[in-house]
Amino acid sequence: MSFDTVIHGGTIVTADGQFRGDIGITDGRISAVAEVLDGGVERVDAGGRLVMPGGIEAHAHIAQESSSGVMTADDYLSGSVSAAFGGNSSFIPFAAQQRGQSVDDVLATYDARGARSVIDYSYHLIISDPTEAVLHDQLPRAFARGITSFKVFMTYDLMNLGDGGMLDILEVARHHGAITMVHAENNDMVKWMNRRLADKGLTAPKYHAISRPQLAEEEAINRAIQLAKLVDAPLFIVHVSTAGGAEIVRREKFNGAKLFAETCPQYLALTRDDLDRPGMEGAKYICSPPLRGHDTQEALWHHIAMGTFESVSSDHAPYRADATGKFLNGPDVAYPKIANGMPGIATRLPYLFSEGVVKGRITPEQFVALSSTNAAKTFGCTTKGRIAPGMDADIAIWNPDVARTVTHADQHDNMDYTPFDGMEITGVPEVVMNRGRTIVAHGVLKASEGQGRFFGRAPVDLRGKPGFTAPEFDTAQNFGSVLR
Ligand code: DUC
Ligand code: ZN
Ligand code: ZN
Prior knowledge:
single chain, 29% helix, binds dihydropyrimidine-2,4(1H,3H)-dione, metal-binding, Amidohydro-rel, metal ion binding, Metal-dep_hydrolase_composite
């Protein structure tokens, strides 16, 4: 067999195990995995390195306007470059529907934006306006081109669909084999807290953390799961930030629900005390759900190690700390008027590797599952997330021993800060490949604008998730009514 590239001498790590071996790559795909492979037009020495599937970043906001109209600082070029430096070979940002906009128009807009990407990309749709035409005409067209996941919101007045709207989306998604992702926070609890804080004049950035109670997330996670169970639809809870929320996810998964979830590095690395930095510095740490306390960090690490979460995702939502982003509404405004989100696409995997693998909280195999393999399974990336013959040669070669301090310059994004600045981390993705082409090597970008490709995705993989039949949908118990 002839190879374009052979990666040799490394330790190959998959979600199931690790072994010394070589990888042969032909025409962008893995064509052989064996103890020793000769040949190859190019030979990449991976001695002393870990050879893993390239990361799949499944939660990022790239070239996306927020519902209040603030554009992210990263577009598909800068966002994908930053992702690549962070060990990712592909990503799935959001394509967000504004109210009144058709899904076809949303996808045409994001297709134009995505064309700049240096890594392969797909989209999750964000649905904010589920009209009859969207539900029954436009969404099926989106599924047909392999957009098999979308996000809905239980919070924000301009995004929140209400329970009935969510049921409609869940039902359509189930019918097509798509998965619904949900931002779960109780809108009224948040609005009530906002009013109470405003009445007392408590508007500094730190009060953002108080305005979005842990109970608001726990209540909404539980409600979202019960809604999904009623129609037996798959559900993915994004950015879980509370121990209570994680406990609910764990219990319902154990009971067989078609349930998936993620948490994010910011909830592991930062706390609400970061919002209490001097002046308006705290604005840099405003994200939703908000940062919590040290006890939450420990609990979330426990849940990562025990398998509650499929993925650790960045929720990269880059708004610069200037008048284009955080301070679009003024330099000194109350926290509800500050853009919501923080960057982290380049730090997600180095942070998870360092604090997870190097510190012994998770195994290298779990790292692979959390960074790539599980996202591929959940979101139907059938040719990605594994090192095996036939798969795309999306590969990251990690040096597990290099220690460094996180700086903004390492992020290679279009931001003006990183919330992880100054953290000491060990382990670096030295070489990153997408479909066999080296995109980053030893700190140098090798990819060019637009070389990433859009990929369509398969339906969600529900093996091992029996689901739930509500008695009211069971013809033996509902007087024979056929309701689906
Ligand atoms: N939800 C996200 O997923 N990201 C940024 C802000 C938000 O509300
Ligand atoms: Zn969200
Ligand atoms: Zn997000």
